[in-house]
Amino acid sequence: MAVAMASCGSISGIYTNLNAIEKLSISSSPCLFRSSFGLDPIQRICIAPKRLGFSESTIIPKASSAAAVEDGSSQDTAVPTPKVIIDLDSDPEATVVEVTFGDRLGALLDTMSALKNLGLNVVKANVYLDQSGKHNKLCITNASTGRKVEDPELLEAIRLTIINNMMEFHPESSSQLAMGEAFGAFQPYQKLDVDITTHIHVYDDGPERSLLCVEAADRPGLIVDLVKIITEINIDVISGEFDTEGLLAKAKFHVSYKNKALIKPLQQVLANSLRYYLRRPTTEESSF
């Protein structure tokens, strides 16, 4: 699946309780990915799904106490690490989304309803349990095209919608999520040092592509921002995976330059550009 990255429009107001999220933008061009990697045609997205009400049969787990959250010794047993994985590689027909939060996550139907509000179809869903917890796995397509979702703005909206749903039904998860600082019932249990948590590596992955691995402190809009930086230096994104693991974000992108793997100097340029963005202080533009 050889696809090239272009760009997309802007997204505003992902949902009402996240009105503090900064506007995400990418310089405009006809589509985001060539072939299966885009919405064809793509329209500007304005997403404002309603918050889901609780039915009488809904059971809302009680949040852990602040002491349990802040105490590092009991944190792992009291509040598991939330994980949201968005995988564009494993299924050629659908975008695979996997959500894990220990053995809790009982609101699968509500999550599916929230995703439908974004104009998506959940073509397959299953739940499986292993030693790491209960995993909700969804295969998602765009309702208007029937194709997998690969637009970064819509992928970011999916991620934030799932995280918002998780914090609504499981308030204790906000102590483990970056978005919990602004919108959660509990503050995150720790602050991440961006200089320590930021790791960027580029590896050779055959003659036609390279593998970019990024690990950084999570923040709203990170998928879109990473894609923007990569494409601004004329590097194409072929496919990828974006994982939210608690306060951390981990991304893997298969990238190429003119259908070839990145040479070492270009790998260095890419790594330096991403490192500069991820480590720079976050300052409101209005403060200048």
Question: Main attributes?
Answer:
three-stranded mixed beta sheet; alpha+beta; 288 residues; amino acid binding; ACT-like_dom_sf; eight-stranded antiparallel beta sheet; disordered N terminus; disordered C terminus
List the helices and strands and how they pair.
Blueprint lengths: L9 E3 L11 E2 L19 E2 L19 H5 L1 H7 L4 E5 L7 E6 L7 H9 L3 E11 L2 E10 L9 H18 L10 H4 L10 H4 L1 E6 L5 E8 L4 H11 L3 E10 L2 E9 L7 H16 L9
Helix pairs in contact: 3-4, 4-7
Describe the model.
- It is built from 8 helices and 11 strands.
- It has 288 residues and is of the alpha+beta class.
- The strands form 2 sheets. An 8-stranded antiparallel β-sheet has the order 6-7-5-4-10-11-9-8.
- The longest helix has 18 residues, at 152-169.
Helix/strand class: alpha+beta
Report the portion of residues in β strands: 25-35%
Sketch the topology as an H/E string, one letter per element: EEEHHEEHEEHHHEEHEEH
Radius of gyration: 19 Å
- Please provide the count of β strands: 11
Number of H/I helices: 8
Helix content: 25-40%
Q: How would a textbook summarize the main sheet?
A: 8 strands, antiparallel
Point out poorly predicted stretches. 1-76, 283-288
Mean pLDDT: 75
Strand order of the largest sheet: 6-7-5-4-10-11-9-8
Keywords: Repeat
InterPro entries: ACR1-12 (IPR040217), ACT-like_dom_sf (IPR045865)
Protein name: ACT domain-containing protein ACR
Organism: Anisodus tanguticus
